[in-house]
Amino acid sequence: MDFTDKVVFITGGAKGIGRSMAEHFQAAGAKTAIMDRLTANTSNPNPPDF
């Protein structure tokens, strides 16, 4: 699916299904807004690269 020039708002995007959805929407060309209650974990060896 092509999401070029579409905006997607994702809640719970720090990990799990939300993070996976954010990555997939971005790969499909969407502009994404990602929110989560979790704060950034600076000790995470694989931080999201959104």
Supply database-style keywords:
50 residues, alpha+beta, two-stranded parallel ribbon, 2 strands, 20% strand
Can you lay out the helices and strands and say which pair or pack?
Blueprint: E1 7-11, H1 16-27, E2 31-35
Parallel strand pairs: 1-2
Spatial order of the strands forming the largest sheet? 1-2
Question: What is the overall silhouette?
Answer: elongated
Major sheet details: 2 strands, parallel
Structural class: alpha+beta
Rg, nearest Å: 11 Å
Oligomer: single chain
Helix proportion of residues, in percent?
10-25%
Mean pLDDT: 84
Given as residue ranges, the uncertain stretches (5+ residues, pLDDT < 50) are none
Instruction: Give the number of helices.
Output: 1
Secondary-structure element series: EHE
What is the count of β-strands?
2
Please report which band the strand proportion falls in: under 5%, 5-15%, 15-25%, 25-35%, 35-45% or over 45%: 15-25%
End-to-end span in angstroms?
Answer: 20 Å
Q: Overview of this structure, please?
A:
The protein has 50 residues and is α+β, with helices and mostly antiparallel strands. It is built from 1 helix and 2 strands, in the order βαβ. The protein has one helix spanning 16-27; strands at residues 7-11, 31-35. It has a two-stranded parallel sheet. Strand 1, helix 1 (16-27) and strand 2 (31-35) form a beta-alpha-beta unit. The radius of gyration is 11 Å and the shape is elongated. The chain starts with 6 loop residues before the first strand and ends in a 15-residue tail after the last strand. The model has no long low-confidence stretch (mean pLDDT 84).
